[in-house]
Amino acid sequence: MKNFARALLAGLSLATLALAAPAQSSYPTRPVRIIVPAPAGTGPDVMARLYAEHLGRALGQPFTVENKAGASGNIGAEFVAKAPADGYTIFYAYNQIPTMNPHLFSKLGYDAVKDLAPVTQTLNTAYVLLGNKDLPVKDLAGMLDYARKNPGKVAYASYGPGTASHLVFELIQDNAKVQMLHVPYKQGQVTDVMGGQVAMVFEPFPSGVPFAKSGKVKALAVTTEKRVADLPDVPAMNEAVPGMNLAGWQGVWVTAGTPPEVITRLNSEFIRITRLPEMQKRIADFASQPMTTTPQEMAQAIQRESEQWGKIIKARHIVLD
């Protein structure tokens, strides 16, 4: 992990210095493309298109979104990693790519630290733990007690091996000293929680909160540091497992080696747009919270999360290739 940290900070040295440098007034002089490693209509795609619209108006050049989905985000990441380092190819993506994928895949066509330069984080999204309403528990603490009494029999759903919805359960089992059964899905997780085929699943707030309020499932925990106003009676996950929280986030990268003044310009523009009342409302509509960070702050977040996920992935021998 020391080598990881040195590489990350070394790769950021120019970007960090850039925060004190004047922005390059000539950028951009031609159209800019924003690569999204997710299908059209998904959360990252919708947000990227909103930013693209604002960027185009502010900077006088078209910003167009291109979807390059697949391979857990690696297709889009590799495309940007190998693009010219000129700021005309931007990566709008999510935290799994630099924090989980390097540990899950033994062979990647890019290095998330050396080949991608952070620009800024834009928003974070928490998760709600949904449980079958007929289970004899009312929260995550009760579920863990139930699992201890039924080792290896309490099944939880995920969006697939190596996803955040899988790895967070691995962390919980490790920290709480319980054993549960993993059932990976591609779709239909919440339906099967309702039907009792599996006991629970972590669902992102945008889709999870409406389910929690519907009464068709139990909300057992939220992954925010504290309880949230939308679900005031639902405990935070760290009330049952101290020190545990989980938040997904979205952010912006460019190809490593991009001129520092271009990174500064993009950082400034993305932050300005994120702070617009209309953008803050759109982010809130996704049950998410806006974020504005420097390239170095974003890099530090990547380093912390990579260390956390790397440990559990290695300990559990989770490999996706």
UniProtKB/TrEMBL annotation:
<protein>
    <submittedName>
        <fullName>Tripartite tricarboxylate transporter substrate binding protein</fullName>
    </submittedName>
</protein>
<comment type="similarity">
    <text>Belongs to the UPF0065 (bug) family.</text>
</comment>
<keyword id="KW-0732">Signal</keyword>
<dbReference type="InterPro" id="IPR042100">
    <property type="entry name" value="Bug_dom1"/>
</dbReference>
<dbReference type="InterPro" id="IPR005064">
    <property type="entry name" value="BUG"/>
</dbReference>
<dbReference type="Pfam" id="PF03401">
    <property type="entry name" value="TctC"/>
</dbReference>
<feature type="signal peptide">
    <location>
        <begin position="1"/>
        <end position="20"/>
    </location>
</feature>
